[in-house]
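Quick illustration, no need to memorize.
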Amino acid sequence: MNEDRIQGKWKQLKGSIQEKWGKLTNDDLDVAEGNAKYLAGKIQERYGMAKDEAEKAVNEYERTI
């Protein structure tokens, strides 16, 4: 799914994302609004992951939706 489609379905996806990455706040997700790089950065920050690991996790999630 490309980023434009993710942004279009963002409100629907927020719940699913928060289930997967529970340390993300509603504010984090509101600011992200479908921006995969921002989301990966917040996951990296909240979970102490390496940047490439967080980006890989977001990319894998995108493939499942």
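Residues 51-64 form the longest helix (14 residues).
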